[in-house]
Amino acid sequence: MPICIQCTYPVPQLYTTYSKADDKALGKGVRLTQCPKCKGFADKYVEHDFVVLFLDLVLIRPQVYRHLLFNYLGREDDRFDPSILRFATLLLLFDVYLTWARIEKATPASSPSLPLSPPPPLPPFPSPSWRDNPAANASLQPEAGAEGNMLAEQPILVQYFFFLFLCAAETASFHLPIRMLLSLRLPGWMTKLVPYYPHPALISTALLLSSFTKLFPLLLLVWQYDLPSSASAVSWAVIINNVAALEILLGCGYVRAALLCGVGAVGRAAVGWLILRAVGIGGGVAAAGVVETGDLIEVWRQVVAALGLG
Predict the structure, then answer these.
(1) How confident is the model over 252-266, as pLDDT tens digits?
(2) Which of 23, 112, 114, 162 lies deepest, with the highest CB count within 10 Å?
(3) Which UniProt key words apply to this protein (predicted)?
(4) Based on the number of CB atoms within 10 Å of its own CB, is 73 exposed (0-12), middle (13-18) or buried (19 or more)?
């Protein structure tokens, strides 16, 4: 059932068609429903195009998230809308490029004149890590006792499918813990930390929709950025949007939404690290594309070093 995007009050319909003679493409023949509670239009976005929706998504306005989650993409059978599946595929392909390029950036310098060319095969013995400080995140060097870098010996196509699997596994490991926690009926005091929301498809839709900032590296087609810095900024923007989307969907407050995203980020970091280690690539969580987790680890190391505990 659709809702009012201002006060979340349920409404029977979002608009009424009162004349078939007028041109609805020009906004004629359609009257928006007035919310009986707040007396405003239930959903003004039914008359707006996708440019307005995108700008309001960038501004993290709750109304546009409610429009998309409840009035546009939400389904009564609790299944994914086909459009969100296509969007998820697009995000996955961008993840493949960013993760592959980030690891390739940590290897000996490639041609700066081809910033968007497919990353070359990984050399067996990569050079220093993607950050200047070697202590920040371990470099992409083979693990001790491993027989070299298995991935570097594979053809380009095999490497591509590896990174495709890596990014898909990381995405699943981020979504599944959050969906599982929200589907559990926990004891009374624990519901103050983890609310109950048994709609897993809508949860994943909110997380995917709020990850649209992963598309911002399209600007690399115009300007050449420092990849580690831009990747870190994009990754943190995605996390902030994920927290906001969960808070809007669940109405649980930003602290609990941040805790849920933190659980998902830990699961994603662990899966990425294990997969990379299995093929002989070290480098910690940041090498797996979980940049914000690597940033937090680096901050923790600096705090420990400053306190003289390390």
Answers:
(1) 899 999 999 999 988
(2) 162
(3) Endoplasmic reticulum, Golgi apparatus, Lipid metabolism, Lipid transport, Membrane, Sphingolipid metabolism, Transmembrane, Transmembrane helix, Transport
(4) buried
What is the phi/psi pair of residue 205, to 5°?
A: -60, -45
Tokens of 53: 């929706």
* pTM of the full structure: 0.75
Report which secondary-structure segment, H or E, holds 200.
Answer: helix 200-209
Residues 6 or more apart whose CB falls under 8 angstroms from that of 14 comprise: 2, 32, 33, 42, 43, 46, 71
Buried b (16+ CB within 10 A) or exposed e, 42-59: bbbbbeeeeeebeebbee
Alpha-carbon torsion (35, 40, 45, 48), positive or negative: positive
pLDDT per position as a tens digit, 275-305: 888 887 765 544 545 555 555 556 556 666 7
DSSP per position, 214-265: GGGGGGGGTS---HHHHHHHHHHHHHHHHHHHHHHHH---HHHHHHHHHHHH
